[in-house]
Specification:
Layout: E1 2-6, E2 14-20, E3 23-30, E4 33-38, E5 53-54, E6 59-61, E7 68-70, E8 87-93, E9 96-100
Antiparallel strand pairs: 1-9, 2-3, 3-4, 4-8, 5-6, 6-7, 8-9
Length: about 100
C-alpha cells in the first residue's frame, strides 16, 4: 500500500491523478470514502481524473467523450467506451489515503 495524500487534501466529490508504483491511478473521494481506478480512459488516451465525479452513482466521467466508469467495478456505464478500466484497493489509514496498485 502506498500513501498518496492526506484525506483532507482531496476535497469531497473530486478526483486527482497519482503515480502509484508506476501506475497512473485516479483517486476519487466521495464523502469520507475513497476509490482508485486506472486513470486512462479505455476509449481514448485521456486522464479520467480530469473528469466529473458523479457522487450518487459512484462513477467518474471521461472529460473527452462522456463515458462514465464505475468506481467499484471499473465498468463503463455509458458509450462510447466498452472496455473497463482497472480498479485498485484504496482506503483511509490514519488520515492518509493509501492505494495498492500492481
Amino acid at each position: 500500500m502506498t500513501a498518496v495524500c492526506r484525506l483532507d487534501d482531496l476535497a469531497p466529490g473530486t478526483a486527482r491523478k497519482f503515480d502509484v508504483n508506476g501506475v497512473a491511478v485516479a483517486v476519487v473521494r466521495i464523502g469520507d470514502d475513497v476509490y482508485a481506478i486506472g486513470d486512462v480512459c479505455s476509449h481514448a488516451n485521456v486522464s479520467l481524473s480530469d473528469g466529473e465525479v458523479w457522487c450518487d452513482e459512484k462513477q467518474l466521467e471521461c472529460p473527452r467523450h462522456g463515458s462514465a466508469f464505475s468506481l467499484v467495478t471499473g465498468e463503463p456505464n455509458t458509450l462510447p467506451a466498452t472496455q473497463s478500466v482497472a480498479v485498485y484497493s484504496a482506503r483511509v489509514d490514519n488520515g492518509n489515503i493509501v492505494v495498492e496498485a500492481k
